[in-house]
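Give me the fold.
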Amino acid sequence: MSSHLAEGLRSRYPDARICWLAEPQVAPLLEHNPALDAVIVWPKLRWKELLRTRQWGPLLREARDFIVRLRSERFSLAIDAQGLLRTRLFAWLSGARERVGFVSREPGQFLMTRLLAKGAGSRLMGSEYFYLLQQLGVTTTHLRQRIDLAPASTAAAAECLTSVGVSAGYVVFAPFTTRPQKHWFDQRWIELAQATTLQFGLPVVWLGGPADRQHAERLASAGGGIPLAGTTSLAVSAALVAGASLVIGVDTGLTHLGSAFDVPTVALFGATCPYSSTCSERTIVLYHPLPCSPCRRSPSCEGRFDCMQALTVAEVMQAAERLCPARLQA
């Protein structure tokens, strides 16, 4: 959702050196962005392992070397796009004189030199980042989310599809998140898989992370399709989304990628509603707010998830057919 920051900053500061600090799994989504000069990778998992095994010496040495690497860039501006304690800490450790970020409940606000609200409540996907750029003097009317994939990721996605017998188009399902209140229901995914295959004549590819692998296999066994959750990197999963004929998913990164790639996308929201419109005219957001919506991390429905119950298979199919009125082709 923040991917347009790079292009916006480049338009405002054409001669600047612009770097993006990222965790390893998302770095491949940034490394080929033409607006960036470098992607600095924070080895989060490596540090967590050193911490878990109490290897204090190597951890301290690697942390020291990492801070030296950050400061060697001699940044004049650091932007914290997340508003977390750790991202504020990295902004401060960068040595940048100006450190701009969002107001949030997280500690560490004193580490920033300028804090911004998240705008006037726009429901546009990534609106807070458009607002941040505007506060930095950037014209944003021409911007939209942008992900540039490596040719190797696209080739790996094609090879993955060939290995499972997909030679034409396909529909991506992204049903998995880390919070149960954002999930739709298994039986509805199963019915939807059967309905989309019948309507569009294309197989369903189930995507997710490593923890979702067995769940995807169960859904595919019951509803049909190909379970690829947990079998590819994030970059290859992104390439699979980019090549899809249709994406249907809940509030999760793979669904948001569908909008960023301008793929026909149906987004199912309930406990959260991060946006109701996108820069892509080929995204439909389905959301039926209740008096308790959005509950985010504090559901009060005793596990019924009434907001997600309100989303029916028929409604999702109607949205898919509006985006893809004809039988989908490769």
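The chain has two domains: 4-135, 152-323.
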